[in-house]
From TrEMBL:
<protein>
    <submittedName>
        <fullName>DUF3781 domain-containing protein</fullName>
    </submittedName>
</protein>
<dbReference type="Pfam" id="PF12636">
    <property type="entry name" value="DUF3781"/>
</dbReference>
<dbReference type="InterPro" id="IPR024229">
    <property type="entry name" value="DUF3781"/>
</dbReference>
Length: 80
C-alpha cells in the first residue's frame, strides 16, 4: 500500500524552534534534523499511522509527529 507521507517526503520541513525541540527531546547531535527524520520515516520497519491532522511515525523507540497537510515536522519524542 502506498503511503501519502512517503510519497511527499520531499516536502518535509520544520521551523527553527522545531529543530531545537526535536534535538532536545531526542538528544540528537546531527546537523540536519529533517534529513534525519526522512531517513527514519523511510525505514521499512517504521510504523506510520494517521490520526486526524497528523501523521505519527514510530521507529527506533521514538515517535515523530508530522502535520498531514503542511508536512511540517511538529515534534519528536522518545517512547515512554
Amino acid at each position: 500500500m502506498k503511503n501519502e507521507l512517503l510519497e511527499n517526503l520531499g516536502r518535509l520541513h520544520t521551523t527553527e524552534l522545531g529543530v531545537i525541540r526535536i534535538k532536545k527531546n531526542l538528544s540528537l547531535n546531527v546537523e540536519n534534523v529533517i534529513e534525519w527524520c526522512k531517513e527514519k520515516i523511510s525505514l521499512s520497519n517504521a510504523e506510520i499511522t494517521r490520526k486526524g491532522k497528523n501523521w505519527y511515525i514510530t521507529i527506533d523507540n521514538c515517535i515523530i509527529t508530522v502535520n498531514a497537510y503542511s508536512y511540517t515536522v511538529i515534534t519528536a519524542h522518545k517512547v515512554k
